[in-house]
């Protein structure tokens, strides 16, 4: 035989030619051995060859490439597989159809979803079965095109042999895969498996020495004949465990566990769950450190103990560190501040910024190299410096106005204004302990940050509710599907598969959206905390309710927290913020109208402005007194002079 055998079959195709013939199809030649064989060429043409003469040829317009063919004698039809579709056509219709006539109509067509490799038809008089082998699936169909069962393959199927067996006429199928495995199935149940030293390209049954043998054609052009027990050796898969549960053994096992818990669990704390107090503890920690215990032999001598801190993805908003030291008889709480060199690095100065903080000092200003010695010592940073916050794109600039005794901290982001302001104030206090510092900051920046936070917080809660509903849908669907999988002949439905895929995709999308909103919410929380920290500095009430973290680490929303702290339930964030600051510091009705002044104003212009302001207030007071006394004419003259 020349070339590789693509297919071997034996059938009675033409009624006028009664003898059976063996046909071998090679890539270049069709060899006939006294049989009738139906085949299809690469030109989408159905042909019948008795001997070497072609007697029937029909064009199938719906076929894209040659595929396997089978004959169903009970329905007198030809089964054709091509392009992932199995079609059936009556033999009488095929012979009566003209070559150049109308389009050929099939009896039925079924899409199997994969390339068809082989077709086997069990010739049962009562109910014939069409076995279709695809690349990754075995499908059983009735003569009318209805699905009976299917079996999914883990490897690519190459050859198939199916036949009826037993008094109940169940179907035995032998499948060859590309890994050299032979699978023996009883209907859709895998009964046997075997691994051969070759890849079987063709499977069939034969009689040898009064025993039913299996004929295989290997990919090495060798023909192997064997029977069960010799070649190939087929081994039976172990029987699946029984699904029945031994409840008596389970109860005995649980009783044994309870006895062990009772004997060895007495060392714990015995607390009644109904009477035990409950509390929710929220620990605020911008920095994380390991818990370590130290043993100091001599407490009179000084000892240096290193502490290792771990910073997260971004630097903390608050530079302060609190260390608690506990002893058997006493305890001590120490407060330190992070060096600015661990948080920022010098960079170029940006003259324009969105958010600004002004520090008015009653004494002369100092060089920034003296106030921030750990970050810079360059002469170019005497009056101005830019600070690039590490691991971020945030730039905070510090400008000095010596004539007006002012420092200005400005940045396009609110995140680190409080941190830099605190470090600058610490440097000023080290130079002059009696210095009086007045912090000016626009409340509108904090109000805007609070409004953005409330909007995103509302969106976060809505997404959380939607995520809970999606998770409940998935759990309900799983509760319905799990009992269905107990059926050994369970076949997933297309609409159910689509519903499961859609539900899971909706759940995954909700999880991704909720996580992204949470990340944005954490960023806005940092901005709002920094803005509230600067406002607390402007009100000289660092220990008040309006501190840096008054709304964090609670189970309440920002609106609920503001309503509680400000005692205002109006729902207006600006009004609630003003009420909050008025209750924790001196009156600030004029804070909303604070306007930043340029640092390069001349000192003489400031003096003229103050003198003009005093003159204006004096004239306004004089006019008011004259009007109150009833002398309207003199009042109008004074108003004209003013």
Ends apart, CA distance between termini: 123 Å
Helix- and strand-based class?
alpha+beta
CATH topology assignment of the largest domain: Methylamine Dehydrogenase, Chain H
Estimated helix fraction: 25-40%
| Total count of domains | 4
Count of helices?
Answer: 10
**The CATH C-level class name of the largest domain:** Mainly Beta
Round the Cα radius of gyration to an integer and report it. Answer: 45 Å
DSSP summary, beta strand count: 32
**CATH-wise, what's the superfamily of the largest domain?**
YVTN repeat-like/Quinoprotein amine dehydrogenase
Per DSSP, what share of the residues sits in E-state strands of 2 or more residues? 25-35%
Organism: Pristionchus pacificus
Protein name: Bbs-9
Mind sketching the topology for me?
Layout: E1 7-11, E2 21-25, E3 30-33, E4 36-40, E5 45-50, E6 56-59, E7 69-72, E8 77-82, E9 85-90, H1 91-96, E10 108-111, E11 116-122, E12 129-134, E13 137-142, E14 147-152, E15 157-165, E16 170-177, E17 181-186, E18 189-195, E19 200-208, E20 211-218, E21 223-226, E22 235-236, H2 247-264, E23 287-289, E24 309-311, E25 320-326, E26 331-337, E27 344-347, E28 355-361, H3 368-371, E29 384-389, E30 395-401, E31 406-411, H4 417-431, E32 437-441, H5 443-484, H6 494-538, H7 558-566, H8 573-584, H9 603-629, H10 632-641
Antiparallel strand pairs: 1-2, 2-3, 4-5, 5-6, 7-8, 8-9, 9-10, 11-12, 12-13, 13-14, 15-16, 16-17, 17-18, 18-22, 19-20, 20-21, 23-24, 25-26, 27-29, 28-31, 28-32, 29-30, 30-31
Helix pairs in contact: 4-6, 5-6, 5-8, 7-8, 9-10
